Task: structure prediction
Amino acid sequence: MLIAGETDYRRILKRELESRCQQNARYSLRAFARDLALPASRLSEVLNGKQGLSRERASGIATTLGFSASESDVFCDLVESQHARGRVNRELAKVRLEKNRINSSFHDLQLDAFQAVSDWYHFALIQLISLPEFKNDPAWISKALGISAVEARDAMERLERLKLIEVKRGKVTRLQEFVAVNEQTPSSAIRKFHRQVLERAMLALDNQPLEERSFSAIFVPIDKQRMVEAKRWIKNFRRRFCRKLDAGDANNSVYCLSVQFFNIKEAQK
Result:
């Protein structure tokens, strides 16, 4: 069962009950309660918001419904965010849910697939597609991103082939909200991508008005042993930043957030 993006565990249970009733006309709330090892009256009150569940009971229900480990964690956190006895435990569950919501928005692209779409405009195009004004027309895309119409057409074909977008009867839909690639393995394709992004940043620095851009830099002394920790902080910041700024149908532009953190002392070696 898909529970990603759900905010109320009761809807998950109601959806499961509806599915079972559709598959078996004789299936009922009483049968569902039996399968979940709950009294029918208790399940009815839970579904109607009159009673809650403990995390332990939620874990048992998740096992019965065949949830994966990650789905079970989300389901239990949804329950605990509402019904945990202590305020601290409720808040911690909400923090875990928010972290999961952010991370589930990002699709990890394998390196071999990334190599096919490593030019910067592929990832800009995925976001451009989400704008209400988007037109599935190479000439329009060309003008919007400053690339050729041929590049625009080929990029659309590659994104569709990799199932990052879907095109049906001329309508284009993002299949992945945000795309990320694991950068732990050195790759010429990844380096090329970052060079292209830095080139776009240089153009913006010279040509975009100050009110439309933000450039900043800071130098800090660190212990290099903390680099793994620093990378994790930067990754978490990027993902939260994207989620906070994405305004859905109110979006009217595509921006690039590019973060560099590197060794100045040894950069020239």
